[in-house]
Amino acid sequence: MISISALANVHSAGQFGDHEGKNEKNLLKISEIKNLLIVQIVQYKNSTFSTESIDIDGLKLKDEPLNVINNKDTRILLNGPKNWLLVSLKKDLLKNILQNFQETDFAVTDLSHSRALIEIEGQDVKEVLKKGCPFNFSILKKNNSINSIYNGIAFTVDVLDENPGKVRLFTLRSFGVSLYHSITDASLEFGYKSMK
After folding, report:
1. All domains of the chain, ordered by start, with CATH?
2. What pLDDT was estimated at residue 1?
3. Which residues are bridge partners to 39 per DSSP?
4. Structure confidence at residue 2 (pLDDT)
5. Could you give the CA distance from residue 165 to residue 68 in angstroms, rounded to a whole number?
6. What's the half-sphere exposure (Cβ side, CA atoms, 13 Å) at 63?
7. What are the pLDDT digits (tens) for 120-150?
C-alpha cells in the first residue's frame, strides 16, 4: 500500500509572500516532514510500574514538563502526566517499544499515519507562532515542547533549535491542511521558501 502524506495536495515548492529582494538565507523555510515513526505511550493510571528501567534507543521516559529527551534519531516529548509522544527516524524501533511496554501497564499506539508534521526554520519562527497561538513563546528554548492551539487547531510544538529558530508542528492529519494554510498565511509577511 502506498502512503500519501497529509499535505500531498497543498504543499508545493517555491518562494511565497514578501520574498522579493531578500536574501534567500533570511527567508523562512517550511517543509512537510514525512516517514517518521510517531508513537504515543500512555501509562495507565493504576499502573505502579517504574518507567526508570525502560530504555528506548538509549533514552529514558521522564515526567519533566516542557523538556524533550532526545538523541540524533529519536525525540520523546511529554504530552501530559504519564503520556509521551515518541518521534524517531528509526521505524524499526516500534518492535523494541512493543516488547518493553506491557499491555497491563501501558497503551502503545502507532500514530505515524495519523499526524501531519510541518517544520519551520528561520529567524521569524516565533513571530509566526505568536500570530495564532496564545502561548508565551519567549520562554520556549531548544528541546522544549508544548501542546496548545493555533487559530483553534490543536497542535504540538517541538523546538529543535533556537538560532535560527527551528520547530516541528504536529497536528491530527485531518487538521493538517488547515494548519498548513494558517502557518503559511502567517509567514507571508516575512517571505518563505517552501521546501519539498
Report:
1. 14-34+113-195 (3.30.1360.120), 37-110 (3.30.70)
2. 52
3. 86, 110
4. 66
5. 16
6. 9
7. 999 999 999 999 999 999 999 999 999 999 9
The pLDDT tens digits for 20-61 are 989 988 999 999 999 999 999 999 999 999 888 888 999 998
Polymer length of the chain = 196
DSSP string covering 159-172: EEEETTEEEEEEEE
To 10 degrees, the CA torsion angle through 127, 174, 97, 77?
20
Give the pLDDT confidence score for residue 111 in this predicted structure: 96
Q: CA triplet 61, 65, 96: central angle to 5 degrees?
A: 20
Q: Which three cell numbers stand for residue 72?
A: 540524533
Rounded to 5°, the CA angle 127-152-181 comes to: 60
Kindly report the pTM of this predicted structure.
Answer: 0.94
